Structure formats: C-alpha cells, structure tokens
Amino acid sequence: MLPWRSSPSLFGCCLFLAFAAVAAQLSAQDKNPFAGDAKAAKVGESQFRANCALSAQDKNPFAGDAKAAKIGESQFRANCAFCHGLGARGGGRGPDLTRVQKRHGNSDADLFRTINEGVPGTAMPPNGAMQQGVGMTEEEIWQVISYIRSVQAKAPAQIVGNAGHGKELFYGSAACSTCHMIQGKGGRLGPDLSTTGSARSTDYLVESVRSPSRRLAQGISEAMKEFSQEYETVTVVTLDGTKLLGVVLNEDDFTLQMLDTREQLHLFQKDKLRSLEKSRESLMPAYDQKTLSDKDLQDLIAYLLAVGVQ
Fold first, then answer.
1. What total of structural domains would you count in the chain?
2. Residues 78 and 192 in one domain
3. Which CATH number is 107's domain given?
4. More reliable by pLDDT, 130 or 300
5. Which of 38-47, 222-231, 248-257 has the weakest average pLDDT?
6. Handedness of CA 26, 30, 31, 34 (dihedral sign)
7. Rounded to 5 degrees, what angle do the CA atoms 286, 288, 292 make?
8. Are 179 and 189 in contact (CB under 8 A)?
9. What are phi and psi of 56, to 5 degrees?
10. Which residues contact 134 (CB under 8 A, 6 or more apart)?
11. Cα dihedral 144→150→155→160 (10° resolution)
12. What is the largest CA-CA distance in the chain?
C-alpha cells in the first residue's frame, strides 16, 4: 500500500475532512445547544444568582446609611451581642468590634464573610448556626456591618505606655508569665493572652488586672457550645484525701476536668470525689497600686496591645 502522502487524492480528502471538522466546531459556537431547554434555563438561573451573590458581598449597599445602621443595631443585639457585648466592645468570648483593626480582615467584604461563614476553630459560628438569633439575610448582615462601622473608632488607638518595659514586667517582676502565655511562652493556668490586646478594650484589661474576680476570664470555647467555660476556681478532695486546687477547664453533670496549680491536668468522676467546691474568687491576685503602679500597668497593657496587633 502506498503512503498517504504519495496519493494526491487521499491527501486532498484528508485535508477536506480536517477543514470540515474545524468549520463544524466554529458553527457549533453560533448556536445554543440548550435553546428552549427549561431545565437548562433553571440551572442557568441558579448560576446567575450565585455569581450575583458573590459580587454583592464585595460592597455594602448601606454604607453610610444611618437608618440602616440603626436597624443593624437591633440585629446585632439579637444575634451578636451575646458574645460581643451590647455596644460591640467585646463580651465574654467575642472581641471588641469597635477597633479599626479586625483580626479576620478589615474590609466590608471581610466582615460579611466572617459573619456569614464564621471562623473555623473558634467560637464564631456560621450565620444562623447558634441558638441565639434565627439567622440573618444578606441585607441584614450588611445592616449589621453598617452598625459596626457607626460605632467603630475613627482611627487606630494610639498605644500609650512603654511596651518594652511592659514585656519586662510580664516575664519578670509582675510574674504574669507564671500563669499566662503569649505566643507559646509562659504558663497555662490562666488564659492565653496572645490576642487579648486585639480582642479586649483597655478598660476590660485594666479591670482584669485590678479586680480579676469581678469578671472571670473565659476558658474553653467550643463553636456549638452555648456558654464557654470560665476559669472558675475549684478545690477537690479525692477519696484517698488528696487535696487539689486549680481552675475548671470543663464540666458536665458527671465529670470535672481541671488544671491544678502545678499545671497538671485531671479528669474526675464527681461521684468518686470526697468533696468538690467551686469559688468565684479568682486564683489571680488583685494587683493594687502598691503591687503594680498605674505607670507600670499602663506599660503592661501597652505590651498586650502591641502583641495583639501582630
């Protein structure tokens, strides 16, 4: 058999078929293969709505609208204040939202995403996932964002105090690192303070140092748990007479998980204990002005704020 290149007629035939295939492909782009297909039109509508929804999340349609911000305040109280406080200045487990710098993004689109999708691995749930509130529409989320912008500080707070000296106090004479950790360095008996500076107001921090028993710090937070466990003081006596003092990490009707003052973790069945006593008196000592001057406290808070924005 002769090679196809040596046969002009065969070569011409192949060339014709190639051109025909290209022409058919081009003509196929001129005609909708789904013309008149109601099912395809329905699928197209869903895709269109999805694309529009994505683009709608980039810009707040109520930006600068005082009336929308007022409506958003009501939505905030119903859905967000439980964690973030009535004035958005931070609550038991939610950060202060009046600050310019937000931990998970500062733009309106970032806020929309955070509210709608939640933050995996934290106590911030997706929109409508908790018992508080009933879930918000896109319009209501934008109104909440308008409210947050209305109470937000106009500029980042200026850090007052010597953060370098505050660090020396934290790891030195104030002995904060005995119980608290920052960026992996320090103790575990108290809450990790790595992000406290970005999550709590200055007034909250001052009160926590001067009067730690007035409002106990929050402990373990679970996304689908209605209340996060507080660092409540607990004293247990085991059946063999061993007495342990520490903080509650988790608890249910039958068991208690605690961390003792030597940072040893214990899990007890309550019916196996001789006694169990809890107290609202924090293990953290109150730092009065004799123990920690106002100037030193200012420096210590300056360090927490500086770490919080990193």
1. 3
2. no
3. 1.10.760.10
4. 300
5. 222-231
6. positive
7. 105
8. yes
9. -70, -25
10. 128
11. -90
12. 108
Task: Report how far residue 190's alpha carbon sits from residue 213's, in angstroms, rounded to the nearest whole number.
Answer: 13
Spatial distance between the Cα atoms of 238 and 115, rounded to a whole number of angstroms: 45
Domain that holds residue 170: 163-212+287-308
User: What DSSP line would sit under 279-310, residue for residue?
Assistant: ESS-SSPP--TTTS-HHHHHHHHHHHHHHHT-
Of 3-12, 225-234, 257-266, the range with the highest mean pLDDT is: 257-266
The reply to whether 201 and 271 lie within a common domain is no
Does the pTM surpass 0.70? The reply is no
pLDDT band per the 50, 70, 90 thresholds, residue 41: low
Q: Is residue 303 part of a domain?
A: yes
Which tokens hold the place of 87?
């004035």
Please write the tens of the pLDDT for every residue from 101-149.
787 888 999 999 999 999 887 778 888 765 555 589 999 999 999 999 9
Do both 85 and 203 map to the same domain? no
